[in-house]
Design goal:
The chain is an alpha/beta fold and about 400 residues long. The chain is built from 11 helices and 14 strands.
C-alpha cells in the first residue's frame, strides 16, 4: 500500500469472520457493478481496507458503500506509520483543516486486532495520544470543543491502529449497524399498499433479506404515489436489478364495497370502514398466497399487535403456513414503529396513499365472529386477479425511471 494514497476503511457491524468475509465479497461485487476498480482490498481484524485505482472515485465509493447495511463506520483515511510522534503531529495538522469554528468533535482510537498491541501498552498509548490531540485541537480555537458522546459531536475523529498502518479519518459516516445486506440470501414477498407495509419492506431489507415487492393499487394516482415512495426507499440500498409485480384492486374494492352491510344498526360508518380495510388486507394476503408462479418461501405480513386483532394475525399466519409460505412479521415484536414511521416520512414526504391507515384507529374492536361471517360471504363470490392481470416487470434502478412503469398499465 502506498502511504501517500487515501484509503476507505469499512468496519463490520457483526464481529465474525463469516460476516466480514461476506461483507468483503459484497463490496467487491457492488464496486464491480458500478465500474469502480480496486487496487487492493484486505482484511485487518474486523475491518476492510480498500485502495482504489482512481483516487478521484473515493468519495463516490464511500457514498455508494454507505448504503450497505452491516457496516458500523465507513471513512476515508490517511495511512500513517504506527508511531506516536508521527501520529500526534499529522493528526493535528490534518484536523485543524477539517474542524470549523464552533464545531464539537469526538475522538475514537481503537485497534483492528487485539494481538497487535499488548493490552496495557495500548491503554497508555491511546490515553496519551487522545489527551494530546484533544488539548491541541481545543487550544486551536476557543469555539472548538471535545465532547464525551459521539451523538453530540459534529465530527468524529477515528484513528484505527492496524497491523501495518494507522489510519486517520478525513471524512466519516456512521452507517446502519444491522444485518449485512442480502446476508441471508433469501427473497421475501413484500406487499406494498400503505405506510406500514413500506416500513415492513424496509425492515426486510435491513435484516439481510432481499425483497420481491408486489404493488397493490386501486387507481393510477394511488400507484404514482406508491411508486414515488418506493423509488425514494430503494435508492437508499445498493440494489441495481429488482423484480416487481403490479396488481390492480379496483374491481375487488368495488365488489367489496357492495358486499358490506347497509342500513344496519350494528355497524357504524367507522366500523364498516374498519371492516373494509381489514378485509382488503386479508384479500392481499390471499392473492399473494395464490400467485403460483412466485416460488418463494417467505412472505412479509405487516401486522401490528396493538393495531390488528390477534385472531386476525393468527388466522393469516396460519394461512401462510398452510400455503407453504413462512410468514415474517417485522412489527410483531417491535414496538418502535412510530419512531420508524417518523424516520420514514423524513426521507419520504410524498407518501400519501389514498387510504392511509390512521395510527389512532385500531381494528381491535372488530369481533372475529362478525367479521368472518361478512368475509366468508364475500370471499365465496370473489374472483381474484388472474395471472394474466398481474403485470410483472424487471427494473434496473441505475437506468430506469420508476414512473415509466405507468406505460405498462
Amino acid at each position: 500500500m502506498d502511504d501517500n494514497n487515501n484509503v476507505i476503511i469499512v468496519e463490520s457491524a457483526i464481529k465474525s469472520d463469516l460476516s466480514l468475509n461476506y461483507l468483503k465479497k459484497l463490496i467487491i461485487d457492488i464496486l464491480h457493478e458500478n465500474n469502480v476498480y480496486i487496487s487492493s482490498i484486505k482484511k485487518d481484524g474486523f475491518y476492510c481496507i480498500i485502495e482504489l485505482k482512481k483516487s478521484n472515485e473515493i468519495v463516490f465509493t464511500m457514498d455508494l458503500l454507505s448504503k450497505v447495511s452491516g457496516i458500523s463506520y465507513i471513512f476515508i483515511a490517511k495511512p500513517l506509520v504506527v508511531d506516536y510522534d508521527v501520529l500526534s503531529k499529522r493528526v493535528i495538522q490534518m484536523w485543524r483543516e477539517i474542524l470549523l469554528p464552533g464545531e464539537k468533535f469526538y475522538i475514537t482510537i481503537t485497534l483492528s486486532d487485539e494481538s497487535n498491541f499488548k493490552k496495557n501498552e495500548f491503554v497508555f498509548f491511546r490515553k496519551d495520544l487522545e489527551f494530546f490531540i484533544i488539548s491541541e485541537l481545543s487550544s486551536f480555537s476557543i469555539d472548538i470543543k471535545n465532547v464525551r458522546n459521539e451523538i453530540e459531536a459534529d465530527k468524529i475523529l477515528y484513528i484505527l491502529i492496524g497491523n501495518d498502518f494507522a489510519y486517520v479519518s478525513l471524512l466519516l459516516k456512521r452507517c446502519k449497524e444491522l444485518m449485512p445486506f442480502k446476508f441471508l440470501k433469501e427473497k421475501v414477498i413484500c406487499p406494498l399498499y400503505n405506510e406500514f407495509s413500506f416500513l415492513s419492506f424496509i425492515s426486510i431489507l435491513d435484516n439481510g433479506f432481499f425483497p420481491f415487492p408486489v404493488f397493490f393499487y386501486s387507481s393510477k394516482n394511488q400507484l404514482i404515489k406508491i411508486l414515488k415512495s418506493f423509488d425514494k426507499v430503494i435508492k437508499r440500498y445498493p440494489i441495481r436489478l429488482i423484480d416487481i409485480n403490479l396488481i390492480n384492486l379496483e374491481k375487488v374494492n368495488l365488489d367489496l364495497t357492495r358486499s358490506l352491510p347497509k342500513n344496519n344498526d350494528d355497524y357504524s360508518d367507522v366500523h364498516k370502514k374498519m371492516v373494509y380495510e381489514l378485509m382488503v388486507e386479508e384479500i392481499i394476503v390471499l392473492i399473494l398466497l395464490q400467485m403460483k408462479k412466485v416460488d418463494l418461501n417467505f412472505i412479509c405480513l405487516s401486522f401490528l399487535p396493538f393495531f390488528h386483532p390477534l385472531w386476525f394475525i393468527k388466522k393469516n399466519v396460519q394461512l401462510s403456513f398452510e400455503s407453504g409460505k413462512i410468514p415474517l412479521t417485522p412489527f410483531l415484536f417491535n414496538y418502535d414503529f412510530k419512531y420508524n414511521l417518523k424516520d420514514f416520512y423524513k426521507i419520504n414526504n410524498s407518501m400519501d396513499v389514498e387510504q392511509p391507515l390512521n395510527s389512532s384507529l385500531s381494528f381491535l374492536d372488530i369481533e372475529q365472529k362478525n367479521y368472518n361471517l361478512i368475509f366468508q360471504k364475500f370471499v365465496n363470490t370473489l374472483k381474484l386477479p388472474s395471472t394474466n392481470e398481474i403485470i410483472q416487470l424487471n427494473l434496473d434502478m441505475r437506468k430506469d425511471d420508476v414512473l415509466d412503469i405507468l406505460d405498462s398499465i
